[in-house]
């Protein structure tokens, strides 16, 4: 009944976890949820034209604003090569449709964005290592390279200038299409090089995408992409066959928000708000996980990446954690291959200080118990 691709389709553990986060008393460190406190309010009269069909590429006013912003970053993104997406997840799907057949080599980081792995697996990708060093050629056979270079999901890492230069040069040299996913670049708390990798490419094929979910409202389901001239028209056709076009009402709401006089102030407030939440979260981490894990302070984005001092398979802890009212993401789920045990992705943007304290205390108790229990430790290894 189904295609062969469905045999490799995996359910998203994040979607399953999100289904339970509204339970009373649940503390979630799992999904990258913006804080409810800073989501915008909107009201007004809806113009009739926003309820009609629209162009697949997106409404012109919003595309123009996106184009202007991308060109300011050094990206070759004229308005006729900008597309509005029904969420940035759609951009991953459209690009995978163009390039990935069963067995197609795709270079990715390990670990990397779980939902991207889900899409690429669906189309049959064979994962290879994403090389960013000057002599790292392990991904040279890749047809597509997927990367989140700025405040990566799940690790929060930010590529150095040298790594960005080397990746751009490698893609041009090998002919691999570079897919740069950049949803967190505006959530920056300490300086690092955030210059898009695609802006460093001289030739080659590329797709660059971003999102309005992290800085405005995820429920509107809007993202955007720009692409090199040889790819854009094919992406438009793929979108036409997928959903015709993204919500025009959502596009108008986003356009009016990001062109309003207070948008810059909103971003500054958002960054300050999340920086404070990050610092509160890290202080609690030091209290509860100081002897259990190591981590690096994220300079941007929404996540802490914990490396446990004992190789506990954190997937075995999730069920009990949820029963105790705490959700998190097992780090093993973000690996394209056989995962290294003992990692966790914790979101710091959503929960308030009291919930952070209670949630991390609960998780620390579970981790400490698992790390001292041989049967728990080796159950997943046997």
List keywords for this structure.
about 375 residues, alpha/beta, 11 helices, four-stranded antiparallel β-sheet, 13 strands, Aspartate Aminotransferase, domain 2, Aspartate Aminotransferase, domain 1, about 35% helix, 2 domains, globular
Describe the structure.
- The chain is of the alpha/beta class.
- It has two domains: 4-38 and 264-373, Alpha-Beta Complex (Aspartate Aminotransferase, domain 1), CATH 3.90.1150.10; 52-258, Type I PLP-dependent aspartate aminotransferase-like (Major domain) (Aspartate Aminotransferase, domain 2), CATH 3.40.640.10.
- Helix content is 35%, strand content 13%.
- It is built from eleven helices and 13 strands.
- The strands form three sheets. It has a seven-stranded mixed β-sheet with strand order 2-8-7-6-5-3-4, sandwiched between helices.
- Helix 3 (88-99) packs parallel to helix 4.
- The longest helix has 27 residues, at 263-289.
- It is globular.
- Residues 375-382 have low confidence and may be disordered.
| CATH C-level class of the largest domain | Alpha Beta
Sheet with the most strands, sense and barrel status: 7 strands, mixed
Secondary-structure element string: HEHEHEHEEHEEEHHHEEHEEEHH
* Relative helix content: 25-40%
* Model regions low in confidence, pLDDT < 50 over at least 5 residues: 375-382
Going by CATH, the homologous superfamily of the largest domain would be Type I PLP-dependent aspartate aminotransferase-like (Major domain)
Count of runs of 4 or more consecutive helical residues? 11
What count of domains describes the coordinates? 2
């Amino acid at each position: 009944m189904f295609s062969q691709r469905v045999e490799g389709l995996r359910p998203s553990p994040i979607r399953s976890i999100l289904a339970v986060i509204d339970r009373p008393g649940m503390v979630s460190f799992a999904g990258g949820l913006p804080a409810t406190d800073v989501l915008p309010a909107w009201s007004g009269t809806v113009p009739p034209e926003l309820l009609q069909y629209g162009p697949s590429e997106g409404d012109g006013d919003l595309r123009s604003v996106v184009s202007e912003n991308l060109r300011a970053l050094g990206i070759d993104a004229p308005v006729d090569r900008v597309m509005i997406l029904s969420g940035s997840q759609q951009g991953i799907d459209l690009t995978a449709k163009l390039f990935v057949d069963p067995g197609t080599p795709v270079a990715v980081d390990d670990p990397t964005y779980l939902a991207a792995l889900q899409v690429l697996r669906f189309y049959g990708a064979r994962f290879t290592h994403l090389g960013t060093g000057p002599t790292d050629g392990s991904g040279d056979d890749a047809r597509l390279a997927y990367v989140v270079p700025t405040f990566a999901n799940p690790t929060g890492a930010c590529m150095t200038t040298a790594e960005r230069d080397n990746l751009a040069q490698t893609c041009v040299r090998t002919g691999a299409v570079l897919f740069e996913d950049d949803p967190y670049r505006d959530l920056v708390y300490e300086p690092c090089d955030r210059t898009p990798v695609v802006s460093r490419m001289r030739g080659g094929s590329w797709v660059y995408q971003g999102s309005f979910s992290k800085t405005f409202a995820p429920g509107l389901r809007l993202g955007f992409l720009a692409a090199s001239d040889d790819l854009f028209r094919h992406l438009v056709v793929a979108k036409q066959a997928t959903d015709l076009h993204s919500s025009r009402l959502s596009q108008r709401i986003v356009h009016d928000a990001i062109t309003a006089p207070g948008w810059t102030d909103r971003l500054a407030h958002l960054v300050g708000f999340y920086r404070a939440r990050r610092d509160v979260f890290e202080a609690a981490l030091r209290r509860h996980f100081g002897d259990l894990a190591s981590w690096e302070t994220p300079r941007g984005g929404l996540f802490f990446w914990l490396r446990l001092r004992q190789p506990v398979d954190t997937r075995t802890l999730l069920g009990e954690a949820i029963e105790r009212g705490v959700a998190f993401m097992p780090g093993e789920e973000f690996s394209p291959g056989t995962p290294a045990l003992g990692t966790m992705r914790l979101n710091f943007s959503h929960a308030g200080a009291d919930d952070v304290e209670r949630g991390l205390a609960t998780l620390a108790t579970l981790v400490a118990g698992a790390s001292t229990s041989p049967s728990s430790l080796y159950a997943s290894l046997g």
